[in-house]
What we know:
Blueprint: H1 11-14, E1 53-59, H2 62-77, E2 81-89, H3 91-100, E3 105-109, H4 110-118, H5 126-138, E4 142-144, E5 154-158, H6 160-166, E6 182-185, H7 196-203, E7 209-212, H8 217-225, E8 231-235, H9 240-243, E9 247-248, E10 261-266, H10 272-284, H11 287-298, H12 303-313
Parallel strand pairs: 1-2, 6-7, 6-8
Antiparallel strand pairs: 3-10, 4-10, 5-8, 5-9
Helix pairs in contact: 2-10, 2-12, 4-5
Amino acid sequence: MRRIVSAGFTAAAIAVLAGCGAYGSSSLPDPGSDAAHNVSSDAETALPRRPGSVTIGSAAFPEAELLAHLYAGAMRARGVEVDVHANIGERPAYMAALKDGSIGAVPEYGGSLLEYLAGESDARTSQEVQAELIEATRNQSLRITDYAPAQDADTITVTKETADKYRLKSIGDLKPVAGRLKLGAPAPLQTVSSGVPALKRVYGVEFKQFVPLAPSGSITQTALRNGTVDAADIFSTDPAISRFGFVSLEDTEHIFAAQNVVPVFRQDVLTQPMADACDAVSARLDTSELRALVARLADGDDPSTTASDWLSRKGLTKI
């Protein structure tokens, strides 16, 4: 539920990413696959052509540190001098560091960043969120580059057995059977507007019971596997989705705002080589790729090494 309660409900969830997760199973179209991203070329002045230098920060969980190293490595390949300041803390901490110049950039998640900067928004799709983010960041002397198809977003996820039994592909398919099923999630999902209330209001889905679960991916996936719950809120990058063959149900009505990975920079730091490097990473990073990288972290691999391996495979270690 990190993406739903973006500014406040993070402390425990952020610490346990090794099993945090949910969205994008093989049955779910990648949530960020809209055609044109093209947002780094914002209407204002051209970016400086020199490589420049930047300190890129990250939130205090492994996936965020990995993303910082992915973008850092690609920028170094284009001649940018880059330092990585990982594990700064929660969003208020690293955004304060960005605004006071302690860091010059940080990888973020579109929907959550938009909510933090501009408050509640009706933007839901990847392109809607990004369009509003361009304005919201500009108003605070920040700038975003292109977003990645990769999302770390809330999903309603079931086991393959449950999906097959009830022929579930989308959240709406739950409507006739939800009255027999239990939903497990962190407690705020029961009351936050884009959670249980939206399931009922938008999809007509009312579960038999809501089971509050601690904000730990491992707790949630265990409850789903042993039948304590029949459906669960899991993040799209949780390795359990692939490992256990879970099925994340398509959110066709977008009750959960898009959470595409997007780098955000101080406007006075961003250069064209930085933007080009970040755009190259974003263009190649989808949800399944990111989930596989997070699985390596959960198995004990180092974020920096994992990022370097991926960049090398994608041909991003050289210009």
